[in-house]
Amino acid sequence: MVALGAICTTAIFQVDRIEAAPAKVMASQRCTVVDGMAVSAACAFQKLGGQAQVWARVGEDAEAQAMRQALAQEGVNDRGLHTVAGARSSHAAVIVDAKGQRLVVPFHDPQVDASPDWLPLHELAQADILHCDVRWPEGALAALHAARQRGVRTMVDGDVAPQEVLQSLMPLADYAVFSDAGLRAYTGLHDVHEALLQVAQRHSLHVGASCGEDGYYWVQDGGIAHAPALAIQAVDTLAAGDVFHGALALAILEGQTMAQAARFACVAASLKCTQFGGRLGCPTRDEVLRALQ
Q1: 124 Cβ partners below 8 Å, 6+ apart?
Q2: CA distance 134 to 157
Q3: For the residues of 27-86, what is the DSSP string, one character each?
Q4: Best CA proximity match to 249, nearest among 236, 235, 264, 270
Q5: Could you list the mean pLDDT of each consecutive 10-residue stretch along the chain, which spans 293 residues?
Q6: What pTM does this model have?
Q7: Structural domains of the chain, with CATH
Q8: How many beta carbons lie within 10 A of that of residue 89, not counting itself?
């Protein structure tokens, strides 16, 4: 997998509840993780048995080196991290409450160069799938077109973004995999089934939506198919959707049917939610297989 998107250093704090401002709340746990939507999907893909590399922009600062080291520790190829002269690397703070819900406060340098000209697009020749998030649309657009030209399968994480961004990227996805909120942003429709069927009229390949504890819905043979999530006690839902994307991509490449791949990904994402620490809670392959059994 080549995963393209934003990369970030995130401080995660666990609290009993997220109070209305002004307030001061003591955290019971904290951790720091290098993440981002596509980055977390790549780490899940790697941890579950695949090989992944990340294409993303980092700042000209010490934080960039820490990001490279964090990816290397996960076994993820970091050669596609591009240093933007004069820019600052991205940061985020996340507050997670006792029910696993969260408040996310990201910072991305507004002066960072958005040009995709540096992308090593020739390396797509060795890729089985390109996975893009929607946080760097210029890069995603260039990579998706290049993947199409080379016959490489593509997946786009259709999370919440400006509608014009979603409209430019989602039609280029062989696997258009939305969040439920992203699907609403794309279609303006609140009914997941209705929205998926509408999108499928414009997409010839896979269209689906990950809906948290309600599992995954996708269009198949003109109707709606469904894979359930596990019934779990959520501790931290941060990066659950990203783990879902990484697991789904891996299962598809392994030749699993869509029903099998969706169930595999739902179980991986559900197990992640039982662990604090964002993408660090991604389960191992053996843990997913045991839960499936």
Answers
A1: 2, 130, 143, 146, 147, 150, 152
A2: 7
A3: -SEEEEEEE-HHHHHHHHHHHTT---EEEEEE-SSHHHHHHHHHHHHTT-B-TTEEEPTT
A4: 264
A5: 98 95 94 98 98 97 96 96 96 94 92 95 97 98 98 98 96 97 97 97 92 97 97 95 98 98 98 97 98 94
A6: 0.96
A7: 2-17+25-109+124-292 (3.40.1190.20)
A8: 27
